[in-house]
Amino acid sequence: MLSLSRRQALAAASALGVSATLAQAAPAESRISAFPLSAVRLKASIFDTAVMANQDYLLALSPDRFLHNFHVSAGLPPKGEVYGGWEARGIAGHSLGHYLSACSLMFAQTGNDACRARTAYIVKELQLIQAAHGDGYAGGTTVDRDGKTVDGKIIYEELRKGDIRTSGFDLNGGWVPLYTYHKVFAGVLDTHALTGNADALTVAIGLGDYLGKILEGLSDEQIQKILMAEHGGLNESYAELYARTQNSRWLTLSQRIRHKAVLDPITEGRDELAGKHANTQIPKVIGLARLYELTGDPKHAKAALFFWETVTRDHSYVIGGNSNFEHFGEPRKLAHRLGQQTCEACNTYNMLRLTRHLYGWSGDARYFDYFERAHLNHIMSQQDPATGMVSYFSPLASGFGRKHSTPENDFWCCVGSGMESHAKHGESIYWRASGPSGDRVLVNLFYASSLDWAEKGVRIDMETGFPYQDSVTLRVTGKPVELGLRVPSWCAAAELKVNGKPETASAKDGYLIVKAKPGDVLTLRLPMAVHVEAMPDDSRLIAFLNGPLVLAADLGPTNAPWAGIDPVVIADSDRDILVPAMDGVQTFTAADRSYPKPLVLRPYFDQHHNRTAVYFRRFTGAEWPAAEAAYKAEAQAAADIEARTVDIIRLGEQQPETDHNFKGDESTSVITHINMRGRMVNGAFQFDLRVVPGPLTLMVTYNGADRKRAIPILIDGQPLVTETLAGDPSSEVQVKSYALPDALTRGKSHITVRFAAPQFQWATVYECRLLKSATQTI
Predict the structure, then answer these.
(1) Which residues contact 491 (CB under 8 A, 6 or more apart)?
(2) Separation of alpha carbons 11 and 305, rounded Å
(3) What is the pLDDT of residues 192-220, one digit of tens each?
(4) Helix count (H) and strand count (E) of the chain?
(5) Region of residue 480 (phi > 0: left; psi between -120 and 50: alpha; otherwise: beta)
(6) What domains are there in the chain, each with its CATH number?
(7) CB 3.0–4.6 Å: which of 224, 296, 590, 654 could bond 599 by disulfide?
(8) Which of 104-108, 526-530, 607-611, 709-713 has the weakest average pLDDT?
């Protein structure tokens, strides 16, 4: 693998001048690579708990159910019913690829042979499926044609003929078929690399050949049209296939799968990401990073370095995640982009993969400052360790919590990447730096674990309660070894002892360098301190961290409604706002400096079932009296609405819908990937609400992102209004009120409210209330 020196990498990473120094890149001063996951074992910790919960889930899933559509596509009898959620829709098949990768990673991480056996079985079935097709195609996706659901192969054969249709998301009417193709492609490549299964490479070659022949018969212009639709990291998979086989055909295909409309501006150092679907772009850049490693072409490195710098600095939130409603916004304008759908988990999964590439080029410790931040606060927030279920988003708007997947009826993209993320928590702890003066072990993450470097006869055992505690103990056995211990940027003064004696060495390039002998015990202390990080576009909107941990206020359980207002802090500066709590590890209070009540803050990542607040508006003592009046008025308005409520239904929740005689046609779907449940108006649904005599108003809460819709609302079959939902998308919910004519409610105890709309309107309704007028009492 080609590498860049630290000087070259930093020069290329400059946001203002991704420079031409890469064009003259000399051989690297050192070669840096992660130790194989199979050489690392996790010890008891939150990371090991997450891996074990994920392993239980992986082994509870059925390969045959994932293979259902693949068998059907080949004319073979299916051996299991298809799963629900996304697996029952046109994107079916993507989970099989993730599952292959996850089981392969889990085998490497734990040595559990049952996981390897799952991958071997799937590979054998894919070989049978490819043989039945006779051309390397394997299937998985479906598409609706003429009122029937058919195999997605029809799309690829249309592409072969030059029939290419896309609106920028679909491809010839199919839901991102190339995205699914990539997941299966990547899954068999991971199986080959991590389990040693030679047949998996054969399957990968077949997949590469089928799609490759289609692309090779098309012009560059036609390929660019295809690439408008989300296609995952197909360029990376073809680059990796070249690395495994040295067949230049695959390298040529990888280079042709370059989405110029996105990657050319990035290569030229221009941030044109605003409005683009975030996770569609990241895998494309990972592919460029892999191409640089294989070819040495400096433009690929320039693009990867600029993109990483831009996203981490200008588009990321305090937990290290990025995007709102899955999209990038304007650079460094995040204060008004806080919602329930911030920080899609897939994005950070892929940003961490990109970070590993870039770190391997230079060994720059700052890459692991980001990696640690995002891994601890975002990836570890995604999984409920009690069940192994994962969230799609990590909401950062006050009052929201995480919504976790179900075992068999979701299979969102983030379920797939979550299977992988929580199968490999040991993969980036230990790295090997090779140079003229010998080899060095770099310890980049302080997670309780062991490294068995069999080649050199070295074993390192790391004991620590990190991130809850700041002390790390490393024991070296076997042979002497030089260690580089990363000193995180959040640590002002690391303290190191060797066999109980203080070491005075200062950090060099972010690392403490120690030559350890067999039997040596190293004790490293990394003191944590509370600090504040403000929004780049609003210095008064702040988040709190202790060391690497983002702290969040606990606003109560997610299964209880939250009618509060965003908490604020009252302080003349950002300093000394939080104080340690009397009880609880990594727990702090804002004492009398918060409103509306004293806040208790704990690490964001482990508040899996709480509504939280991460960002806080700060007012000075002089500003607060005037601001307090407005906040109290808002609270009073909320209380008034509660007092006037005759009846309320929270859509998407089982009991409220049962209580209100909810009925929906087949086109209505439940929104389950955000904590605020709701129903899509994609067809029609209806429910009953209790009424009382007197003037009444129907108050409806819609998703703020849904605009330019036309939704008829009927009361007992009579038209009330057609809601157009005009205006610009917003992170805030939008609330509309409609006065009910007396004739629609007079003499009734209940009314039936019906929402109807043409298919694919996709407007989401969260709750509906019937209110008495402000002058009436209930």
Answers:
(1) 526, 527, 528, 547
(2) 10
(3) 999 999 999 999 999 999 999 999 999 99
(4) 22, 37
(5) beta
(6) 1-34+258-382 (no CATH), 48-247+408-426 (no CATH), 430-525 (2.60.40), 530-622 (no CATH), 641-772 (2.60.120.260)
(7) 590
(8) 709-713
